Design the sequence.
């Protein structure tokens, strides 16, 4: 699929079919993720691919519990896209246990927390996560970029055995889509470009 | 261009021709960048497009000065790709003033520094930066993901008028390539995939 078509239609797919995803396709997504940029080509990223039912249930349960205290009904005056997003995020948090695959994108810390160069860990693993999202779209797979792992960090670490010094960047549920891909909803480009000065 | 072909050949292009780049192409890159994921579709990104010769000279001069104290000759036993990267990075730092376009990718802070959710600012602007890199490759433009702005933060802020509360994620020189795109050099996928457990 064409680059611009894939990026422009990589809508967050928050509803997934239960059908399994071929491990070769997951490897292709990780291949794409690892083509991303990183400072000095340091490639400070790791990917935990979770298909084990118990692990998904533990993580999904902990995230859903944590989110239950946060999510409310969308405000009555919220516009349609915000309502769809909030309802979709709630549904997604509640269905992590049944998503065919979860991919946890991790980063190896080069600098200790609080060091100004701590940001470098994110400058490798978030580009990788975005390549994965666009690649999933190109393969027709549904995926959503989330930071749900932050809501249940200790359960995620404990379940997967993530070392303390490894940072967790994104938790991406993946499967065959139960909603259609289509144009993403974004602000006009003019609002975010500054020519020569802020 | 196909998604996987573009990602797989989006080599960091550290040598650029002086020819100007049509502003419409830059807008297309920013369009692609803003198709990226962000938490709750918050789109917390801004892009400063720098073509002004004085601004480029000030920023380029400050970065080159700061880097002069850091870069050394590559170690004699460094392998070829590391030598090429170090020499290329030094050349790039020295040629920011003459790059046709610099794009500074910025993020709006949602949480104050030190807050655990500070990472959310990076989870929007680094995905956007990566989409820009892949889109540049698809258009045949040369680009390199750098964090050079961190070497001369006050000069960059002052020259461009970046507000204190805005974070700077990446500084990406863009132009027509003076080296060829080609397969990126990365670790094998098996080394970074963990199936079900770290």
Sequence:
């Amino acid at each position: 699929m064409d680059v611009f078509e894939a990026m422009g239609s990589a809508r967050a797919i928050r509803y997934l079919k239960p059908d399994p995803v071929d491990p070769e396709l997951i490897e292709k997504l990780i291949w794409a993720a690892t083509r991303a940029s990183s400072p000095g080509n340091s490639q400070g990223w790791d990917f935990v691919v979770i298909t084990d039912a118990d692990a998904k249930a533990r993580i999904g349960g902990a995230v859903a519990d944590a989110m239950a205290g946060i999510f409310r009904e969308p405000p009555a005056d919220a516009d349609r896209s915000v309502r769809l997003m909030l309802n979709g995020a709630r549904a997604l948090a509640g269905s992590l246990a049944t998503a065919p695959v979860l991919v946890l994108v991790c980063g190896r810390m080069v600098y200790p927390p609080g060091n100004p160069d701590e940001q470098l860990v994110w400058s490798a693993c978030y580009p990788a996560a975005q390549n994965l999202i666009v690649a999933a779209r190109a393969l027709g797979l549904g995926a959503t970029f989330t930071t749900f792992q932050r809501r249940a960090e200790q359960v995620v670490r404990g379940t997967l055995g993530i070392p303390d010094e490894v940072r967790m960047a994104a938790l991406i549920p993946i499967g065959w889509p139960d909603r259609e891909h289509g144009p993403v909803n974004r602000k006009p480009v003019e609002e975010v470009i500054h020519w020569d000065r802020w």
User: Anything to note?
Assistant: The first strand of chain B starts at residue 45 and ends at 50.
